Amino acid sequence: MIHIVFNESETDLMKQVMEMDETLVGEVVQIKDDFAVGPLAGIDTEEGWQARVEWWRGLLQGSPAGDSLAGTFDDRETVKELKAKLAEDPALELWIWMGQNQHDVSGYYWLMPQLREYQGRVMILYLNNLPFINEKGHIFYPSWLHEIQAKEFIKAKKLARPITLSEFEIDPDEWKKMMEENAVVRILEGGKKIAGKEENFYDSEILKNITGEWQKATRVLSNTLHRMKIKTGDVFIMWRMKELINQGKIQVTGDVNKAWKDFDVKLGGAKQEETVAEENSAEG
User: Fold this and answer.
1) What is the CATH number of the domain that holds 233?
2) In whole angstroms, how far apart are CA 175 and each of 58, 75, 133, 186, 247?
3) Per-residue pLDDT, 129
4) Edge-to-edge strands, sheet with 161-162
5) How many domains does the chain have?
6) So what's the pLDDT on residue 192?
7) Pair (240, 123) in one structural domain
8) Average per-residue pLDDT in the chain?
9) Would residue 279 count as lying in a domain?
10) Cα–Cα distances in Å, from 107 out to 37, 75, 80, 119, 184?
11) Cβ–Cβ contacts within 10 Å for residue 50, how many?
């Protein structure tokens, strides 16, 4: 079998799981792009794909990874290799592991039109609305696979089922809708329902973590990522922080065009006055 995951942390997690359960031993493959953000228009064409790569390259400027990361992988080639292995070995199965979040579900929708011919050999493990035991022994409902202890995956494997013919007919249409809508942000509204949002969807989360005092931009980034309920990646959040700086809602000292650690931020004039007014109103 081949296990498909959508987050880097889950490749190591799956290796731990396979050490515990030899029936799950197989190759682990990660789909690396985050299809929950960014342009999707024409992504099934070379032009559309490259437009998306350039979009990411712009966002990655100044990041620890550097803008050279964009284009270093091609998930289309990953899928080609998967299909070649499926064609070569008729007994081979793909197991898609998916948490209840827009990142995993968007990646799943991207895969569906490409795997349709292998219906019956593609399994899905969608761990949505399912209780697990955390390290403290408490029951919780994870949104991401990496929140689950490796030993708990042994139970989860019982949930594996083939993706149905009906799903292979309907879900590619969902992907087509996502491409046509071409929203900059996509969130999960329950089940497998993806809803498009404006590019400023996360801006309020960033502003919650900025005060009238100077802070390292990286500290604001870390606090935002930790506290926000609907998660997205650090690259996208930092891009939005820079956009808020351009709009004058955030003040900056240092050079935003250099590394993320090279500038500090605080609330911009208008935004700071608005925040103070809200606090005074709450006190009154």
Assistant:
1) 1.10.10
2) 25, 16, 33, 12, 33
3) 83
4) 27-30, 2-5, 94-98, 122-126, 161-162
5) 2
6) 95
7) no
8) 91
9) yes
10) 11, 10, 16, 18, 15
11) 13
The pLDDT of residue 68? 63
Distance CA 84, CA 82 (A): 5
- Are 111 and 170 in contact, with CB atoms under 8 Å apart? no
Residues of the domain holding 157: 2-181
pLDDT for the residue numbered 42:
95
Distance from C-alpha of 61 to C-alpha of 145, rounded to nearest angstrom: 29
The reported pTM is 0.90
The type of residue at 198 is E
Are residues 205 and 228 in contact, defined by beta-carbon separation less than 8 angstroms?
Answer: yes
Asked, for residue 238, whether it belongs to a domain, the answer is yes
Residue that is written with structure tokens 């024409």 in the block = 42
Distance (Å, rounded) from C-alpha 276 to C-alpha 116? 55
Residues of the chain with pLDDT under 50: 273, 275-277, 279-280, 282-284
Q: Give the Cβ contact number of residue 262 at 10 Å.
A: 14
CA dist 253 to 205, 222, 262, 271, Å?
Answer: 21, 19, 9, 17
The rounded distance, in Å, linking the Cα atoms of 97 and 157 is: 10
